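anyone seen this seq b4? input:
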Amino acid sequence: MLALQALGWLVGNEDLLPVFLGSTGLAPSELAERAADADFLGSVLDFILMDDAWVIGFCDSVGLRYEAPMQARAALPGGRLNIGRDAKGPQRMIDGVIFDKDGTLFDFRRSWGAWATGFLRQIARDKDHAAALGQAIGFDLATGEFAPDSPVIAATAADIAAALAPLLPGQSLAGVEDRINAAATLAVMVPAVPLRPLLDGLRAGGLRLGLATNDTEAPARAHLAAHDLTDLFDFVAGHDSGHGAKPGPGMCLAFARATGLSPGRVVMVGDSLHDLHAGRAAGMICVAVLTGVAPAAVLGPHADAVLPDIGALPGWLAARAG
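predicted toks r here
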């Protein structure tokens, strides 16, 4: 049983065990006798779910997906209602929406295809070298298309740099990453839909809004500012903001903490499996959009809904509330 694994992980963690014991008032000798108590096991999972770093540490230690503790908690007494596509019963209220950036707020192909073409030509020695660099990051310079597994789609600048660095002798990994971030800050983003009216409408409906991107935070803020959107977001995080990268739940959980919202009443909207897995691991409702590279057939099994773009989100919210 997962909750017992979690208890075993806590017992073996010299730093966290005293914190857990202090929060429960239990003595170490009482843990074994309480291990058969479902309510107690629920409190073990509640404790681990308080911090995304603990979730990641536990799951990595036993080879579990990051959403597994939340799913296990839902099956124990006092667990949250787990609404999926086949769930029965009342729909949960929605108090907030956290968006991915690239492929969600902004059309991925039209935004990053032009950026990749310009950046690769800038750093390459010649045409053949540019093509080889493109191949290393899953980008075809001739067609302007990204491969489904391109690190540009959902990975971090550090991951992209790691793919390019072997083909850039004499340049450090950190130096390549710095060049990527500098160029990304200047990238021209193409909105997937008219963003200001959409986001204004969501805020007028009482929703708190956040942004969670595997991009670096500085370029993400630059892209929002370029489209006069910064003031509409209560929370903005990149992979370097201290909450980890997706598919870990860190950024999603940090948004919930920053806004005081229950993760179960927040919608994560994204265009990749990294986005959906992050949202699910945080216990959020997950909505996929098709303005990235992944098709509905890939995203659908992992989402509570699949929409053509975020312009359809208000209608989906209204239908769900009705």
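The chain has three domains: 2-74, 96-106+191-321, 110-185. The mean pLDDT is 88. kinda curious what u guys think
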